[in-house]
Amino acid sequence: MMYQDLLDKKKKLAVIGLGYVGLPIALEFAKKIKVIGFDINEGRVKMMQHKIDPSQELESTAFDGCDIAFTSDLEVLKEANFFIVAVPTPVDEYNVPDLVPVQRASETIGKVIKKGDYVVYESTVYPGCTEEDCVPIIEQLSGLKMVSDYKIGYSPERINPGDKEHTITSIVKVVSGCCEESLETIAKVYELVVKAGVHRASSIKVAEAAKIIENTQRDLNIALMNELSIIFDKMNINTFEVLEAAGTKWNFLKFQPGLVGGHCIGVDPYYLTYKSKQLGYDSQVILAGRAINDGMAGYVAKKVLQHIIQNNGNVKDAKVLVMGATFKENVSDIRNSKVADVVKELKSFSLKVDVTDAHADSDELLHEYGFGLVKDLSDNYDAVIVTVPHNSYKELDDAWFASVTKDKALVADLKGIYRGKIKSRGYWSL
């Protein structure tokens, strides 16, 4: 009934939270059914009403042909019957899960939900969070009961910022529900837009856990590469050359060392270890991986400082250029960027630091991390750290680096994109 009513446009689907995850989902559904796009940020809502993606991921043409109304008004949200929650789930400064956004979204739903409605959470959480933390908030405010009065489901987001190939329609979607009926309805609704199909998980907790371990696995694999990089550096071996050689074996997993930031890999494992600790088990492997990855910013800063001390004399007069401030290449997303940690570490050594980026917004960086971008580069840097391999950086050559640095300067190429190309300056990579 719910599925058919949505298809016939008798009922509306609402997406709560219109960031990197929510907006693409809302627009895909809006090509098929009636959609309400809800966000508490009125400035963002106005931008989307004018076909502008505040996250700078989608072109204005992505809004064309979409039956969608953008709003921050609860009265408009009440018109929906199928709610998708796509708000962020960060950690605080102590790496403890910050559930405030998902709790507030649950409060919003509790104020607007009606008998027979559906709610599906997409926000990344620890197993049990949907049923143990979110449902009680909805029920306290609405007076409704899960299963008998309304249905709950969980379908983890699989949005990859900057990736134009693996989009919502082309990635298999994991879905789950609070009962058989809800599972089938939720699966059919997502099948409207996900061409790759859906995977029906046996329970909401299984779906929550699946999302968490996807990113935990990547985190641990990158942590291994980072630890190998530290070891190989002591042996004077280039890590990328080692990985290139090992990668000729058919079953070798091709991960690389680097800074691990962003809204998923650097955050999600803490949700699992937090819940694990609540249940009396202290994670060992997962937290060890997190410690290595979180420590890489300090490691990079110290390697650069050592070079400056050995080659360029007075540290207080030294200048460093950091190229790349986003959490990954070719995106404008600065959330949980570990480059900010590199800048902080360098400044703690009294080094002067300039930051440049081909995609990031200077005002946003200033607001989030306390530093902006420089417009004009100097010609006497003691070191250049290329943190993010944006496409535009890959075209730079030895002559360009020589033009912005002193004779004995270091080019710290964290992702190894200039391997074998830097001859006139010192060179180091992870």
Q: Please identify the top-level CATH class of the largest domain.
A: Alpha Beta
Distance between the termini: 56 Å
Helices, by number, come to: 15
| Total separate domains | 2
Q: Which spans have pLDDT < 50 for at least 5 consecutive residues?
A: none
Approximately how much beta-strand content do the residues carry? Answer: 5-15%
Radius of gyration: 24 Å
The CATH topology of the largest domain corresponds to Rossmann fold
Give the helix proportion (percent range). 25-40%
Largest β sheet strand count, sense and barrel closure: 8 strands, mixed
Q: Judging from the principal axes of the Cα atoms, what is the shape?
A: elongated
Task: Determine the structural class based on helices, strands and strand pairing.
Answer: alpha/beta
Neighbour order of strands in the largest sheet: 3-2-1-4-5-6-7-8
Total beta strand runs? 13
Specify the CATH homologous superfamily of the largest domain.
NAD(P)-binding Rossmann-like Domain
CATH architecture of the largest domain: 3-Layer(aba) Sandwich
H/E series, N to C? HEHEHEHEHEHEEHEHHHHHEHEHEHEE
Determine the mean pLDDT. 94
List the helices and strands and how they pair.
Elements: H1 2-7, E1 12-16, H2 22-30, E2 35-38, H3 42-49, E3 68-71, H4 74-77, E4 80-85, H5 100-112, E5 118-121, H6 129-142, E6 151-154, E7 173-177, H7 180-191, E8 198-200, H8 204-234, H9 239-246, H10 268-278, H11 285-294, H12 296-311, E9 319-323, H13 339-348, E10 352-356, H14 362-369, E11 381-386, H15 398-404, E12 405-413, E13 426-428
Parallel strand pairs: 1-2, 1-4, 2-3, 4-5, 5-6, 7-8, 9-10, 9-11, 11-12, 12-13
Antiparallel strand pairs: 6-7
